[in-house]
Amino acid sequence: MTRERLPNIFIDDTDNNKFIGYVDLYKRYPELHIRDIYIYEKYIVLEELFQNEKNWYIGGFSVYKYNKEFKYSEYQTRGKKLYSKIGDPYWFKGISDDLLFCDIGTGPWIRGIDIFDLANNDIVLEGNYYRRFWLSGNILYGLVFSQWNVKRANFDDYLVQMYYKYFKMTEKPEEKEEYKWLFQEFILNYNYNILTKEITNLSGEYMFNKIEIEKTSSKEAVYAHPPYSELEIRFA
């Protein structure tokens, strides 16, 4: 077991729920079909593989109440399951107190972020981010709002109004040859107070990104875990 913070974990632990350690169970016991395990004083996170036809894939994870009397392999049958997203492109990003942070997506560009209250079985936030998100105190930084959100009407009217307000206020970049093959999108940046739900520090900008479609099967594209070096960018 290692107690070092891993590069794919964005959120620091807290004194109320300290990080105990990390285990790569798959290296020792691949037949259990459990990959990485993250252990906190209150909770334990298992990256459980799922089977599609004859192949096993990583995609999603489950969170259980931590019980030091259980073996890792016993949680699936004996543990108290608090959260589970198996077979979906959900990636564990850390636990702060009782708040679970999830990264959602299969590729670059804008990706999803969910915050789930494990103690109260409640969704705190369903949002999006670009490049990276981080938590400082009660403020979550790096969130974005895009046309994708507007079309799906999955946010309150305030963000929709601010999106169009800043869209009108923000000057569109001058067309240049180097932008010719880039995907362009206007986004609204903002920060979010996870306790008061206050939205602050709004700003608008145009983002450019090169989207490349790799020659890979749809199943591999959906459920392949992004390398640590690419975890800062994703598509929701």
Please outline what is shown here.
This protein is mainly beta. The protein is 14% helix and 44% strand.
Write down the overall geometry. Answer: globular
Give the strand tally. 14
The quaternary state of the protein chains shown equals single chain
Query: What's the domain count?
Result: 1
Low-confidence blocks of residues: 212-236
- Spell out the helices and strands N to C: EHEEEEEHEEEEEEHHEEH
Q: What fraction, in percent, of the residue positions are helical?
A: 10-25%
Mean pLDDT: 83
> Mind describing the biggest β-sheet?
7 strands, antiparallel
Our Rg estimate from Cα atoms comes to 19 Å
Secondary structure category: mainly beta
Strand order of the largest sheet: 8-9-10-11-12-13-14
Strand content: 35-45%
Please explain how this structure is put together:
With 236 residues, the chain is mainly beta. The chain has five helices and 14 strands. The chain has a seven-stranded antiparallel β-sheet. Strand 2 (34-40) and strand 3 (43-48) form a beta hairpin.
Give me some keywords for this one:
disordered C terminus; single chain; 236 residues; seven-stranded antiparallel sheet; five-stranded antiparallel sheet; mainly beta
Annotate the secondary structure layout:
Layout: E1 19-24, H1 25-28, E2 34-40, E3 43-48, E4 50-52, E5 55-57, E6 60-65, H2 75-78, E7 81-86, E8 90-96, E9 99-104, E10 110-117, E11 122-136, E12 139-146, H3 147-152, H4 157-169, E13 183-193, E14 199-209, H5 218-223
Antiparallel strand pairs: 1-2, 2-3, 3-6, 4-5, 6-7, 8-9, 9-10, 10-11, 11-12, 12-13, 13-14
